[in-house]
Structure formats: structure tokens, C-alpha cells
TrEMBL record, chain A:
Family indicated by similarity: Belongs to the iron-sulfur cluster assembly SufBD family.
Species whose genome carries this gene: Lentilactobacillus fungorum
Location of the SUF system FeS cluster assembly SufBD core domain: 170-398
Superkingdom field: Bacteria
Domain spans labelled SUF system FeS cluster assembly SufBD N-terminal: 77-161
SUPFAM superfamilies named among the record's database cross-references: Stabilizer of iron transporter SufD
InterPro entries for this protein: Fe-S_cluster_assembly_SufBD, SUF_FeS_clus_asmbl_SufBD_core, SUF_FeS_clus_asmbl_SufBD_sf, SUF_FeS_clus_asmbl_SufD, SufBD_N
Name assigned to this protein: Fe-S cluster assembly protein SufD
UniProtKB/TrEMBL annotation, chain B:
GO MF annotation, one: ATP binding
Coiled coil: none
InterPro entries membership: AAA+_ATPase (IPR003593), ABC_transporter-like_ATP-bd (IPR003439), ABC_transporter-like_CS (IPR017871), FeS-cluster_ATPase_SufC (IPR010230), P-loop_NTPase (IPR027417)
Domain ABC transporter: residue ranges: 4-252
Top-rank lineage group of the source organism: Bacteria
Annotated protein name in UniProt: ABC transporter ATP-binding protein
Record key words, sorted: ATP-binding, Nucleotide-binding
NCBIfam families reported for this sequence: sufC
PROSITE patterns for the chain: ABC_TRANSPORTER_1, ABC_TRANSPORTER_2
Gene from which this protein is expressed: sufC
The keyword Hydrolase appears for this protein: no
């Protein structure tokens, strides 16, 4: 076991993570997770070797900066929730939504004010604290996050937007946990925007649990752009009850090494998920992305689409896992994993993994690792675009298929700008 | 006046599997000036598309002899994008489909490619021209916001090529079988778009099987290509003559030793 994968278990670290006057049940949960950390293994993702990354290099003496940078204040205008590390910059829902019983606040406040609700769903349905060393570390050391609760039958048209910054203005711990609970037959969109302020090297632990009750429909999208010096572990998981649906659209544009684990558990009969992820790896960056759909319920359906671009000497691994449990009659699992290589020095992998234990199911996969389509390039260049511009357009088009699923115009623009910036930088170093 | 000149052009292509090269063009000569409309007709497999792709600079075609010049300057060492910026445009038979890029952002990028980096076309000016061109071509406004050729029907793709032509405004346009697969109504619309471009500063080279296109876009010169060469040049009465005699008739008249893919079928039937 590399030293980096071992957490130095200083009691001060556990103590520093606790929320002010948190309830006993949470302290107990932390303690149980804390005591199991050493016994549990690091999670294993096929072909993704991240064990030497300093993901568990957490500090027992985290600094807290109470000031909110002006850029965050400015950017938060279009969001209902904004935070910098453990500091909440904004949490504001419309009167209408408050009247309908929608709750949006930071996790610490939720635990204080809506303790029973949080207790019912936190680490109980989607993610369990004792799955592996990283889930246990998150449960023991969670120090921030958001809580969104949408009651039964509530439908919301406008997206609910969360802006969460890792605060790397000083050495500190970013152990973030966002819990989203969708009541029966509720319908809404959530957007999570994840970024870093500051230049210090800190790991990031980010978890999102979505518990989707019967008949609910959640459209979740995310744009991640954590800093180059941040090693990140990102775990987003959905638990779907009968006829529930979650559509995930994730743009993974971190500048640093990233291991991402995106899962949907189709527990209920007729539940359905669409999981789309796009990513770019640049320079010497390594990103491993593991997307899994597990069909437990009969007639459940899960589709995975993953697309990635590689530049520089980077590595990008996409695992797509379709797992069908015995008893999931008439279920469907499809996946498509595509990797576009723009550099001869990069290393890309697109691995479909199908684990099927039922007969009357439909499952399939498509995977490709390829270079840019020369006919498309020729066509664009024949209209006067330089090779570099044409390449960027084709690459952007390749990732841009998910853009229409991102509900905020600002975030779509940010994503386009990030793709452009990464491609321009990548081309410059070729 | 600008002049595009093809002299003694020999072109080979390499078979993608066997890598064996085959000569397609065997000495083509052609001179076009702006303000002129030329048509090249010829049977299947005679090298018409090879000629248009080679002029444009498709890297799959290898020039083994001869030259292509624009106002005396050779284009052979220029890449396809350089030729496009020099004023050439090829409306393609099979344009590529590209998901994720809208038609309108692509055309704006193409227009800006010939402008200085710090002087892009103002968006409102661009949109005004685009609206006008869409209108001429009977295209709905949402065509501009659709992904580039993605899911377009054959006819929509052809219109889209002409939309790009009208938006980019090149000096010379080569239309490679722009009429194939179009019904009469669509053909009229596409021709209207091309005719609107006509000016002393613009030249067109049409490649076609069909005489009927020439009813809508009148050529000053008609060239007949057979066996990798231009074998006869005339005015638009030549197209009508071909309609009667077929390529086999012309072959006999000129005493040529070339194979025709489809023997004894009049050109008026599209050479089929």
C-alpha cells in the first residue's frame, strides 16, 4: 500500500471536521467511519492507478478564511447557493419555492434545522460510509456541502444552481458532501458548478448523493474545473426508486489529476437513468472516470455516454460498467465510450464492462479510441478555417453534444470557453 | 479580373487498401476568368470530381504533372484552407456531417477566416446577410441553428452548400454535381442562389451529368471530359448536342479510345 493511500489518523483531524454543535447521531456516524478507515481498501477502478496521489494528505490543522473573494460574489449572482470551502456565501430560494416546502441550505445548517430528514438519507440510500476507504473518509471528515430537498409532487421549472468553491487560499481540507432528495413525483433540475480559489495544494473529496423517490425526475448537470494543484476524488451517486429518473450531464474539466466515480442504482421497477460525461485531459494530467449503472429493478433502463479528448502527454480512462442483477427482467443497459486523441503522446482508454446476470435483457456497448476525422477536417478547412481552428471546432463539436443539457447559459458559455482554452493550450505545446 | 488556370494537369489517386496508384487526370487544360460561367460534363468515372477536388486541394489527390494557378501564382504548394482564403470554394457532393457545431457559428468562423483577427464581422451584419440568404434559398431560420449537415436530407445538404457559398462570397466557386438528387423546385431555388452571386468578380465552374441544370444556370462555355481529358469545348449548344448523341456518339465523332461506364445512354438521362 503506497504511503499516499494511508490516512494519518490524528484525532485533531476528526475533531476539526465537526460542525458546530452537531447532533450525536452525526458524531457517531463519523466515529464509526473513522474507526473503519484503516480496514477498508481504497476503491479499485479498472486501469485507473491513483494510489500514489496525495488524496488522503489531509491536515489536522485546517485554516479557515472567512472572507469571500469578490469574484465569487460576482459569479454567485446567477446561483441560489454559493459556498467557498466551509463558508456559505449565499443560500437563497424564491419565496414561491420556500412556500412549496423546498429546502436549500448548507449541510451544517440542514443537520441543525432538518436533522431528521438529513439523517434519513445521508449515507443511507445512495452511498454507504463503509464501502471503501474513501467513502469512510468522507463520512468521518465531511466539513461542508449543500442540502436540497424537493417535496412530493413539487415541479420546478427554473434550475436550482449550486456554486461550490474549494478554498485553496490556505492549507485546509475540502471534504464536501451534497445531498439531494427528490420527493415522489417531483421534477426539477440541479446544476453543480465546482471550482477552486487559491493556489495552495489541497486534495478535494466531493460527493453528491441523489435519492430519487418513486416517479421523480431529476436532471442533474455539473461543470467541474478544480485547479491544477488539486488531486480530486469525485463520487456522484443516484438511488432510484420505482419509475424515478435521473439524467446526469457532467463536464469534467479539472486541471489536476482526477478520479471520478459516477453511479446510478436502478433499484425501482421502471427506473431510468441517462449518464453523460465529457472530459478533457491535458499536459501530464491523469483522469480516470468510472461510470456505472446497476439494474436491480425489472424494466429499468440505464444508458451511458462518455466522450473525452486527450492532449499533451495526458491520460484518460473511461470505464463504462453496465451491471444487471438477477431478477431485473426486461431491463436495458447501453453504453457508448469514445475517446479522441489529439496528441501522439497521450494515452486513452475506453473500456466497456458488461456484467449481466439475467437473460431477458437488452445490453450493448460501443467504444472507440481514435484520431480526428480527416473528412470533417478537410470540409472545415475547405471553407478557409486553419487546421488549428478546424481541429478545435471538430473537438468542440465532439464534446458539445451535451451542451444543450446544461440548463444555465452562463455555464454553457463557461464550458465552451474551457474547451477552447484547453485546446488552444494543448495545440501550443504540440 | 481574376484568372484560374489549369494546365496539363495529371492527377493520380492511391487505392486506400492496395496503395497502388492510378492516374485519373491525363492532361487537363482549362482557363476561367471571373465573370464567366463554365460547365464540365462527362460520363461517370471520367475524373470530373477528381478535377474539382484537386483544384480545391484535397490531399488524397496527387498531382504528378502540370499546374493550377490563380492569377499566375501556383496553388499546388498551398493547403486547402490557404486556397479557400485565396478565393476558391467547392460545393461538395458529399459534405461532411459535424455534430456539436451549428451551421451559423461555422459560417461565421469561415467568414472571419478571411478577415483580420481583430476585425471579425459584426454579429448583426452577419445575421442580416444570413437571413437574406436563407430567404433566397427558401430555408427556414432554424436550419442555421442546426448542427452542421447533421441529419440533413440530400436536398438540404445541397442548399446548405449554396448557403455557405452565398455567405462566404468566394472569387471562384466549383459546384460538384450540385443538381444531383434535387427535384425541379429545389433545383430552381439552388440556381436562384447561384445566379444571385453572378458578377464580374465571380466565376463558376459547374460539374454535372445533366443538361437540365444548364437551363437554370446558363454557361458561357461547356467542356466535355472523357478519359481524364477535356475532349471538346463549346457554348451551351454543345450540351444540347450531347443530349441527342450521348457520350458514345461524341466518342465516335472524335475517334477516341476510352471506355464508358454506361455505354450508349444519352447524357440527358444523367449518363445512367
Amino acid at each position: 500500500m503506497p504511503k499516499a493511500a494511508v490516512l494519518k489518523k490524528d484525532p485533531a483531524l476528526l475533531e476539526s471536521s465537526k460542525f458546530a454543535s452537531e447532533p450525536q447521531w452525526l458524531t457517531d456516524l463519523r466515529q464509526r467511519a473513522w474507526s473503519k478507515i484503516d480496514d477498508l481498501e481504497m476503491p479499485i477502478f479498472a486501469k485507473i492507478n491513483y494510489h500514489s496521489w496525495p488524496l488522503l494528505n489531509l491536515t489536522a490543522d485546517p485554516g479557515i478564511n472567512m472572507s469571500i473573494p469578490q469574484t465569487v460574489v460576482n459569479e454567485s449572482a446567477a446561483y441560489q447557493f454559493a459556498s467557498v470551502g466551509q463558508i456559505v456565501a449565499k443560500a437563497k430560494l424564491s419565496e414561491k419555492l420556500i412556500k412549496q416546502g423546498v429546502i436549500l441550505c448548507d449541510l451544517a445548517t440542514a443537520i441543525k434545522e432538518h436533522g431528521d430528514l438529513v439523517k434519513q438519507f445521508l449515507f443511507s440510500k445512495a452511498i454507504h460510509f463503509d464501502e471503501d476507504r474513501l467513502t469512510a473518509a468522507n463520512a468521518a471528515l465531511v466539513n461542508g456541502g449543500a442540502f436540497l430537498y424537493v417535496p412530493d409532487d413539487v415541479e420546478i421549472d427554473e434550475p436550482i444552481n449550486l456554486l461550490q468553491f474549494q478554498d485553496s487560499r490556505q492549507t485546509t481540507n475540502f471534504v464536501n458532501h451534497t445531498l439531494i432528495v427528490a420527493g415522489e413525483n417531483s421534477r426539477f433540475k440541479v446544476l453543480q458548478r465546482l471550482a477552486t480559489v487559491g493556489e495552495t495544494e489541497n486534495p478535494a473529496h466531493v460527493m453528491v448523493e441523489i435519492v430519487a423517490a418513486a416517479g421523480s425526475y431529476v436532471k442533474f448537470s455539473a461543470l467541474d474545473s478544480l485547479a491544477a494543484q488539486t488531486h480530486s476524488y469525485i463520487n456522484r451517486r443516484g438511488y432510484l426508486d420505482r419509475d424515478a429518473r435521473i439524467d446526469w450531464t457532467v463536464g469534467l474539466f479539472n486541471d489536476g489529476n482526477t478520479v471520478a466515480d459516477f453511479d446510478s442504482d436502478l433499484v425501482g421497477v421502471g427506473s431510468h437513468t441517462e449518464m453523460q460525461t465529457v472530459a478533457i485531459s491535458t499536459d501530464r494530467q491523469t483522469q480516470g472516470i468510472d461510470t456505472q449503472v446497476t439494474n436491480y429493478g425489472a424494466h429499468s433502463e440505464g444508458n451511458i455516454l462518455q466522450r473525452g479528448i486527450l492532449l499533451g502527454a495526458s491520460a484518460l480512462v473511461f470505464n463504462g460498467i453496465g451491471k444487471i442483477i438477477k431478477g431485473a427482467h426486461g431491463s436495458k443497459a447501453q453504453q457508448e465510450n469514445r475517446v479522441l486523441m489529439l496528441s501522439p503522446k497521450a494515452r486513452g482508454d475506453a473500456d466497456p464492462i458488461l456484467l449481466i446476470d439475467e437473460n431477458d435483457v437488452i445490453a450493448g456497448h460501443a467504444a472507440s479510441v481514435g484520431r480526428i476525422n480527416q473528412d470533417q477536417l478537410y470540409y472545415l478547412m475547405s471553407r478557409g478555417l486553419t487546421k488549428e481552428v478546424a481541429q478545435r471546432l471538430v473537438a468542440r463539436g465532439f464534446l458539445g453534444v451535451v451542451l444543450s443539457d446544461i440548463p444555465m447559459a452562463e455555464v454553457r458559455e463557461q464550458m465552451i470557453a474551457m474547451i477552447e482554452r484547453k485546446l488552444v493550450n494543448g495545440q501550443r505545446t504540440e | 479580373m481574376t484568372t484560374l488556370k489549369v494546365s496539363d494537369l495529371h492527377v493520380s489517386v492511391a487505392d486506400e487498401e492496395t496503395k497502388a496508384t492510378k492516374e485519373i487526370l491525363k492532361g487537363v487544360n482549362l482557363t476561367m476568368n471571373t465573370g464567366e460561367t463554365h460547365a464540365i460534363m462527362g460520363p461517370n468515372g471520367t475524373g470530373k470530381s477528381t478535377l474539382s477536388e484537386t483544384i480545391m486541394g484535397n490531399p488524397k489527390y496527387i498531382v504528378t504533372k502540370g499546374d493550377i494557378t490563380l492569377d499566375g501564382e501556383s496553388l499546388l504548394d498551398k493547403t486547402v484552407d490557404e486556397r479557400a482564403r485565396a478565393g476558391l470554394f467547392l460545393a461538395m457532393q458529399y459534405p461532411a456531417e459535424i455534430k456539436g457545431i451549428t451551421n451559423s457559428e461555422f459560417m461565421r468562423a469561415a467568414v472571419n477566416a478571411t478577415r483580420p483577427a481583430d476585425k471579425p464581422i459584426p454579429i448583426r451584419t452577419f445575421l442580416k446577410q444570413l437571413d437574406h440568404n436563407l430567404d433566397v434559398l427558401n430555408m427556414s431560420a432554424d436550419m442555421a441553428e442546426r448542427y452542421l449537415n447533421e441529419g440533413f436530407s440530400g436536398g438540404e445538404k445541397k442548399r446548405n452548400e449554396i448557403l455557405q457559398l452565398m455567405t462566404i462570397k468566394p472569387t471562384f466557386a466549383i459546384l460538384d454535381e450540385i443538381d444531383s438528387g434535387l427535384d425541379i423546385d429545389a433545383l430552381q431555388v439552388v440556381s436562384k442562389g447561384v445566379n444571385e452571386m453572378m458578377s464580374p468578380d465571380f466565376g463558376v465552374l459547374m460539374i454535372t451529368h445533366y443538361q437540365r441544370l444548364l437551363n437554370y444556370i446558363h454557361p458561357d462555355q461547356v467542356h466535355v471530359m472523357m478519359g481524364g481529358r477535356i475532349v471538346k469545348t463549346g457554348d451551351d449548344s454543345l450540351a444540347k448536342e450531347l443530349e441527342r448523341t450521348g457520350y458514345a456518339g461524341l466518342r465516335a465523332e472524335l475517334n477516341l479510345d476510352v471506355d464508358l461506364v454506361d455505354e450508349d445512354v444519352p447524357a440527358g438521362n444523367g449518363g445512367r
